[in-house]
Amino acid sequence: MKKWIPWLVVILLAGWLASTLQQPAETGFQTREFGKLPVLLNGRIQPFDSVARNSLLQLRTRQSLDDMTADQWLVEVMMKPDDADKRPIFRIDNLELLNLLGLPDKQKYFSLNDIRPHLDDIEKQADRIDKIESASRSAFERQLMKLYNGTALYQRLKITLCPPDSHNMAVELAEYQKLIPDGIAAVRAKEANKKYDENTLNEFLGYLSEFDNMTRFAYPLVVPPLQNAKSKDDWQTIGANLMALSRGGDLSVPVQSYITMVTAYQNNDPETFNQTVKDYRQWVGQWYGAETNKGIKEAFYNYFQAFYKAIILYILAFLLAAGALLTFAISPKLSEIFRRTALYIIILTALLHTFAIGFRMVLEGRPPVTNLYSSAIFIGWGCVVLGIMLERVFAVGLGSAVASFAGFVTLVIAQNLAIDGDTMEMMRAVLDTNFWLATHVVVVTLGYASTFMAGFLAITYILLGLFTPLLRQKVGALELGKVLTKMVYAIVCFATLFSFVGTVLGGIWADQSWGRFWGWDPKENGALLIVIWNAIILHARWGGLVRDRGIMLLAVFGDIVTSFSWFGVNMLGIGLHSYGFMDAAFNWLMMFIGTQVTIIILGLLPLTLWMSFKPKSQPAPVIPPGTVPVK
Questions:
Q1: 609 has a pLDDT exceeding 60
Q2: To the nearest whole percent, how much of the chain has pLDDT over 70?
Q3: Closest CA to 422 of 112, 41, 39
């Protein structure tokens, strides 16, 4: 039984993953196909689907609405903005801001129509808050700035494909094209102080004003350059092409296609909409095949949500691994079933995790670590791989428990980092080198992952020792506590090596980029702290300054050192390495450090209070009947 039950569970989970690869068929408007069309945003080619999901993340911290997908919502915003204005998409949690806007405090999502009467007040407050340093802003001020930026983003999305208050783009385009000769004549007549038709002039200038707003504020760029363009990066807005008509230019194929899509959607004509999307994708694929294929792949990546599925599987594996530990002394057979099942699920999830990282690398054309988001998912992957290796050597369930917990926690951190929007943004110039990203960044990140893994194992040691008798349980020839100590020691050795080599490689990169090997930059100091702390642990162990519990306490403090070096130095906002300044993560960092300090304090409690080390009670002496005890 203990052999086939784990395999059955894994086969069922693998079947579930396989079943989610195929997207359900769409009826009516094929907005999912529209979402695969390529656009240019944030310096990179991406599909409309990514624009929709990242925009919703910034507006409401979720990638969909209750009754709409992200693609359906984006199509409505761009083609029927009056309907979209009624959708509750702006999330507001701050009671002070709700009171200022006169909105009900029992809701947390609001539509643009709810907020519209207060847009002027929001803008005035934003002008005031913009003069305050972000680190000094109150919760109310941060929430208001987020709302202000969200409404600006939403307004830009609305004018991407059609001007504001446009209800039939095809009719308006025909009227504009017909008006161009008379409009130009009226402009020239006015400039020459000659007689002109004022109504014609005002109508013509009104069109140009709308198209100018589309040109300057549309989000994203949706019109690819012509095949004979100087650069493939010269994407345009629809407004720019429409304004060019007044200078004798031609209406490009992309603009004609988008106008047909908008008109079909506004007229509730899904057949024309779907056929136009299909025809345009074929057309753009002839000139920009790589960009079109990338849009299709990235839309699939977004839909599959591999990291979210991995979180679910890691939780399941952790529960099974915890069950294996808790039943270790009670029912060894049941414990072994739990342990094997947890290990097999973690291996399956590690393959999924690896697939997602690899797919992301293909989409970006970069090594696995390029920003804080990708470092989180890569550190989690490294911890999982180390946990699997430990479980293969010490088959007791501890490696699986720590691997699944680390994988879950790091992916949750990554999910929170993704709330700010696009996680595949363009690289800064100083980072634009795949060689050093693949060497220094990957190696030093593996050092981070190893240090965290040692800390998580140390936390397991402390919690098991305090609240269970399992540390004294025999695992082969050793007690479980001794096994954990060997695990932590081995991983700290691994972490020291990778942290040191990664730091040296970083110095070589700095020498090539900035002309100096070391400059005591905060990020450099953080990397050095990790190396020094791991070295302290090893030397304290070798010199006999600490025993099992001591090495565990030092390893837990290593979590604090690493988290500060990973996140904290970025939050300082100073130095050449501050690429990921984030105000929102400060509270989470402080909470994490607080938990580690609490665990260290618990670990310092006398061993007599640890359940695993409590002295066994001696049986009371047997007094023969009739014997008078001596006082």
A1: yes
A2: 92
A3: 41
